[in-house]
Specification:
With about 400 residues, this protein is mostly helical. The chain has helices at about 5-15, 20-55, 55-65, 70-105, 110-145, 145-170, 185-195, 235, 240-255, 260-290, 305-340, 345-350, 365-370, 375-390, and strands spanning about 175-180, 205, 215-220, 225-230. α12 (about 345-350) runs antiparallel to α14 (about 375-390).
C-alpha cells in the first residue's frame, strides 16, 4: 500500500474546483481587500459631510434648550449621526453588500428583501449604538482623564449584552431557526454533542440561503443563549455526514472553548488602546476636519471626529484583529480533528468555501486580510492530521 502523502492529498482537494473557479474566487477576494480602503474613504467623507452641515450641534443644542439631561442630548446626537451616516453611505452599501454579491453568485436575495433587512438592522443599530455612545460620553464627562480606561469595560459589557440577546431577539428577526430535523444528520450531531458534553438541544438549522449562497455554519450567543447553527446552504450543496461532523465539530470547538469570551476580552483591551489614542489625537483630527463649533472631546457634536479616528484605527489595526481571530479559528479546527477525527469531512467542507475566500493567498495577504486561515493551510493541516491519526 502506498504511503499517504498529505501534500498530494491537499493538492487533490484543491483541484476539485476547476482553475476558472479559483480565478473567480481570487478576483472576488482581492476585490474585497480594496473594498476595505474604499469603505474607509467613504465613511470619512460621510463624517466630513455631517461635520460641515452642523446638524449634530443643532440637535444637541435643541435638546439642551428643552432642559433634557446630557445623556438624552448625547443619545439624540448619536442616533442622528448613525442614521445620517447610513443614508450617506447607502449607495456604497448597496454596491458592496448586495450588488457585488449578486455579481459573483453569492446571493439570490432580491434588492427589496435586502433593503428591508438593511433597514431593520439599521434601526436596531441606531438604538444600541446611541445608547453605547451616550454612556461613553457620560464616562468622558465624569471620568475625565481616565475615561478611555473605563470605556474598555463599557465595550466588553455591550459585546456580552449583544451576544446574550442576539440568538433570542435579533437573529430570529432575519432568519428562521429550527432544531436539526429527525434523521441521520440529527442523530449524528446529537451523538457528537453528547460525546463532548455539549447540550444536544443547542444544534439548529437556519434558512441562511435567504440572504447568502455561502456554505457556512456559526456559533452565536453566550451561556444559556449560545447555539451552533448550520445554514441550509450546507445541505443544498450536498453536505454528507462526514462534512457535518467536520463543520459542526469546528463550531462545537468555539462553543466548548468559549471563544466568544476570549474574543470579548481581547476586544476590550483593544478598545482601551483605541480610546486612549482617541483621547490623545482628538484635537488634531478635529482641526484637520475643520470641526468648527465642537468644544472638545466631551462634546457629542464631535462624534464624527471620534468616528474618523476609530475608522483609521480599524483600518490600520485590521491585521492585528485578523491574526487573533485566525488563531481562534485554528483552535476550533484542532478541536474538531481531535474530538471527531474527520479530516476528510472538514477538507471537503472547506473546499466549498473557496468561492468567497480564495484558497491560496500569499502569506502577507493572509496576515493582512484573512480572518480565517487560508483554505489551503486548513486542508493541509487536516491532511497531516489524517497521516498521523489514522482511523481504527
Amino acid at each position: 500500500m502506498a504511503q499517504f502523502d498529505p501534500a498530494a492529498a491537499t493538492a487533490a482537494y484543491l483541484a476539485q474546483l476547476p482553475p476558472e473557479a479559483h480565478v473567480k474566487a481570487q478576483h472576488y477576494t482581492q476585490g474585497g481587500h480594496w473594498l476595505l480602503l474604499w469603505g474607509f474613504i467613504i465613511s470619512v467623507l460621510a463624517a466630513w459631510v455631517i461635520i460641515r452641515t452642523g446638524v449634530l450641534t443643532k440637535v444637541g443644542q435643541g435638546v439642551e434648550r428643552k432642559k433634557a439631561r446630557p445623556f438624552l442630548a448625547s443619545f439624540a446626537v448619536a442616533a442622528v449621526f448613525v442614521a445620517f451616516s447610513w443614508l450617506l453611505e447607502l449607495p456604497w452599501s448597496v454596491y458592496s453588500n448586495w450588488w457585488r454579491q449578486k455579481q459573483y453568485g453569492l446571493t439570490s436575495q432580491a434588492f427589496g428583501g435586502w433593503l428591508t433587512e438593511n433597514l431593520m438592522g439599521t434601526a436596531i443599530s441606531i438604538v444600541f449604538t446611541a445608547i453605547f455612545l451616550a454612556l461613553l460620553y457620560v464616562l468622558i464627562r465624569r471620568a475625565r482623564r481616565l475615561w478611555w480606561l473605563w470605556a474598555g469595560g463599557l465595550t466588553a459589557g455591550f459585546i456580552v449584552f449583544g451576544m446574550l440577546l442576539a440568538p433570542i431577539y435579533i437573529e430570529p428577526l432575519f432568519n428562521k431557526y429550527t432544531p436539526a430535523p429527525p434523521g441521520a444528520v440529527r442523530d449524528e450531531v446529537v451523538a457528537m454533542a453528547k460525546s463532548v458534553g455539549i447540550p444536544s438541544d443547542k444544534i439548529f438549522v437556519y434558512n441562511g440561503s435567504k440572504q447568502s449562497n455561502a456554505y457556512t455554519a456559526n456559533v452565536s450567543g453566550l451561556g444559556g443563549s449560545a447555539r451552533v447553527a448550520m445554514s441550509d446552504v450546507m445541505f443544498k450543496k450536498g453536505a454528507d455526514i462526514a462534512e457535518v461532523r467536520g463543520v459542526v465539530g469546528h463550531e462545537m470547538g468555539h462553543y466548548a472553548h468559549q471563544h466568544s469570551l476570549w474574543i470579548t476580552g481581547i476586544f476590550a483591551v483593544l478598545a482601551v488602546i483605541a480610546f486612549f489614542i482617541v483621547d490623545r489625537t482628538f484635537p488634531w483630527f478635529a482641526q484637520a476636519l475643520n470641526a468648527k463649533g465642537v468644544t472638545g472631546i466631551a462634546d457629542p457634536a464631535g462624534l464624527p471626529v471620534l468616528a474618523v479616528i476609530m475608522a483609521v484605527l480599524g483600518l490600520v489595526g485590521g491585521p492585528i484583529t485578523n491574526t487573533l481571530i485566525r488563531e481562534v479559528e485554528s483552535d476550533a479546527d484542532r478541536y474538531s480533528l481531535v474530538n471527531f477525527n474527520e479530516p476528510d469531512g472538514l477538507a471537503k467542507a472547506l473546499v466549498k468555501t473557496i468561492e468567497y475566500r480564495a484558497a491560496t493567498p500569499s502569506k502577507l495577504e493572509e496576515v493582512l486580510f484573512y480572518d480565517h486561515p487560508a483554505v489551503s493551510v486548513r486542508v493541509r493541516r487536516a491532511m497531516y492530521w489524517k497521516a498521523t491519526h489514522p482511523k481504527s
